[in-house]
Amino acid sequence: MARIVMLGAGVVGLGTAMLLAEDGHDVTVLERDADEPGATPEAAWTDWDRRGVNQFRLPHMFLSRYRAIVDAELPSVAASIEKAGGLRFNPILDIPESVRGPARAGDEDFEVLTGRRPVIEQAVSEAAASTPRLEVRRGVTVEGLVTGASVRAGTPHVVGVRTTSGEVRGDLVVDVMGRRSTLPRLLEDVGARPPHEQLDDSGFMYFARHYRSTDGSRPFAFGPGLMHFGTISTLSLPADNGTWSVGLITSARDKALLGLRDADRWEQVLRALPLVAHWLDGEPIDDRVTTISKLEDRSRDYVVDDAPVATGVVAVGDAWACTNPSLGRGASIGMLHGTVLREALRAPGLGDYADFAAAFHAATDDEVLPWFRWTRFEDAHRLAEVEAGIRGEPYLPGDERYELEQALSSASAKDPDLLRLGVRARLVIEPLDDALADRAVAERILELGSGWRDDPVPAPDREALVALANP
Q: What is the distance between the alpha carbons of residues 453 and 406, in angstroms, rounded to a whole number?
């Protein structure tokens, strides 16, 4: 078994650390934020300061793939989340039977286990604290990588990290530092080639608040959590302990909607959206509208020209690739990536570090990268669609895949099979690719959904929207 040094104690970092510790590895997790998790869910929400996570108190959703992994692989995590008041529900069975049809075998796959990010992370931290072979050290800043004798000519071999409190050595260093990972700089400092990086501003801006129910109930969902209404989108997500979040998403370049930073204007716009207005009928638990922008779509490939830029170190989750968080896929994709790392450590293992790097890279490309690419595809089209709407123009990209996915969204309300097909992808259960490549499925989607551009948009038009945001 190996000694693993994990950099980052977020939800994916701790989850991956537990997967590896359960497999018999000795795992040390280093977290630069010094604050300990709150002792209770509410203390986590009100008092826990996670400066290293800029979206810590923004809306979050932990989807079905995340739930499936913790249920099957980390039952102590699932139990801890439920003990903290995490919400377990099935979004398919919440849909009226007249739309979804009768319940069927396989519907259990859609179940989610979710909550506010601080509450979920506090629960995961509690489970990690009782996991054998796992140690979490908070308030430790990594200042550099420690290298040893190269196992591949001209390639640095990492054997640990240098921190503010000394060296921590291991057989493998795993970067789970998230969106703000400094691994490329750390590698540059030891003479490694730079990773191949693709980087763009996601282009979106978020305006969000959280609410609490007065009677423990949660609002009825008239549609998916993320819904598009012309040049804005809404994000309405149920969470733990009778709480939920509501968000408005705009283009970061849409200066006409910056008035949404004001709570009254923000609420005025949401009240004008009949499918989501009732999500405001609770007690606000934020004292203001929380905003965030300049979130990056980024991927980093640490195998370049079929060779690792360094051995003895890998990146997982958002440290490897991150996208628009409004789709809620980060934790699910990150934990899927954690299971890929576990399997690579089982075989081929670390006997040959170059073989390990190649196997982990290949498995990442095969199992995880398609989810990132699909998310980036959706983001790029949605942003372009919004920009066209701001200009008062129709969005006609001439992209068959885009047209088919939009038709699927429209057709889902008319066919229970297509409904489940779309939701399985949205919840990171199963990709759309094989299904959409089936000619019969594609023809059925177009038969029912090709008129999607004519579907009514239950929202103010652009002029009215701008007026609501700027009274």
A: 9
pLDDT, tens digit, for every residue of 33-70? 999 998 899 999 999 989 878 788 889 999 999 999 99
Q: Which CATH number fits domain 204-292: 3.30.70, 2.40.160, 3.90.1570, 1.10.530?
A: 3.30.70
Separation of alpha carbons 446 and 404, rounded Å:
7
Q: Count CB neighbours of 206 within 10 A.
A: 24
Task: Enter the DSSP assignment of 318.
Answer: G
Domain ranges of the chain: 1-201+296-392, 204-292, 396-456
Distance between CA atoms of residues 87 and 112, nearest Å? 8
**Cα–Cα nearest to 55, from 111, 7, 6, 11:** 11
In 180-299, where does DSSP find H-type helix? 183-189, 263-271
Buried b (16+ CB within 10 A) or exposed e, 368-404: bbebbebbbebbbbbbbbbbebbeeeebeeeeeebbb
- Nearest alpha-carbon partner for 106 in 94, 95, 96, 92: 92
- The pTM of the full predicted model, rounded to 2 decimals, is 0.97
Asked, as a colleague might, if the bond just before 348 is cis with ω within 30 of 0, I would say yes
Q: Give the relative orientation of helices 369-391 and 353-367 as an angle to the nearest 10 degrees.
A: 40
Q: What digits encode the pLDDT tens for the residues 11-27?
A: 999 999 999 999 999 99
Q: Residues 39-70, buried b or exposed e (16+ Cβ, 10 A)?
A: eebbebbeebebebbebbbbbbbbbbbbbbbb
Average pLDDT in the chain: 96
- CA–CA dist 331, 100 (Å, integer): 27
